[in-house]
Amino acid sequence: MRSKVIAALAVGVMAATSACGGATTDSGGDKVNIAINPWTGYEASAAVIQYLLENELDVEVDTKELKEENAWQGFEREGDDGVDVIVEDWQHTDLRKKYIDDKKVAVNAGTTGNKGLIGWYVPTWMLKKYPGIDEWKNLNKYAKDLETSESKGKGQLLFGDKSYVSNEEALIDNLGLDYEVVVGGSENALIEAAQQSEKQQEPLLFYFWDPHWLFEDVELTRVKLPEYSDDTTQCPTDPKKVKCDYPEMDLETIVSKDFADNGGDAYKLVKNFEWTNEDQNSVALDILKNDMKPEEAAEKWVNANKDVWKKWLP
Question: Does 144 map to a domain?
Fold first, then answer.
């Protein structure tokens, strides 16, 4: 989810009418704008926060679908066009520098409790047919097996939405891999490709991330890229020189400075929101695979986990 990732929820602000968002009270009744980033795990977190804001704090919530960079831009906008909370940021260092450090319109509100891990994956059935394909040094051996009509005579590495955090081009170049990044365009494209590979036994190498409910549906194996290290001589941080795997990261909530200062109880609930990868996957699975509306999946989780979310209330 990254150099540019997966997925931001922006929860609208409760601020003075002259600032970004609605009027401020401590007890609720103001509108919170939530921007939904393009992956289901993010939507699951947003749905639970929205459900609790509306039903526990009596706060009106408006949602809008925004890709990650557009959600960050919303921190500078006012009123209904504004964005106040990105519930799940995958360590967008460039955007953090721009909006938190330089423009000072956003602040880090802390962890969501989720641990995020991006990587390259193959369906596990491939390990028998293509021995060692889960080791990066063997990928070129199987490049022809992974060639498609879109991969320009090279092996295909299937990617998702262009807005996702991505080191793929640099990894391919710096590791000398005979592969081409092919953009599928969405989370659904990745899911469908994995499911089809499992069903039809067609080889697939693709970009993906955890937490995600797909791991409950399709057995996947992560390809071992050169291990990540904080030692920049071993793992350069320059985007063009990246040659190591993605690190595990704490997913964090980013909010507008105005929402942090004036959001009252709504801000406190957003800041206190913290659950596990298993929690998020269970709600996401209900939304995408069990055909539940986000609010229905959120209500189901809330009803079963009162001991968890009660701690988030101000």
Answer: yes
Alpha-carbon Rg for the chain, nearest whole angstrom, is: 20
Burial of 42 (0-12, 13-18, 19+ CB in 10 A): buried
40 and 96 share one domain? yes
Paired strand residues for 123 = 220
The span from the CA of 13 to the CA of 267, in Å, is: 8
Statement: residue 14 has pLDDT above 90 = no
pTM of the model: 0.82
Please report whether residue 13 resides in a domain: no
**Residue 168's domain spans which residues?**
116-222
CA dist., res. 92 & res. 105, Å (int): 15
Crossing angle between the packed helical segments 277-288 and 40-56, to the nearest 10 degrees: 100
Length of the chain: 314
The encoded tokens of residue 97 equal: 């520098």
Angle at 157 between CA 151 and CA 158, to 5 degrees: 95
The per-residue pLDDT for range 187-215, each reduced to its tens digit, is: 999 999 999 999 999 999 999 999 999 99
CATH of residue 48: 3.40.190.10
Question: What is the number of structural domains in the chain?
Answer: 2
CB distance 65 to 73 below 8 Å:
no
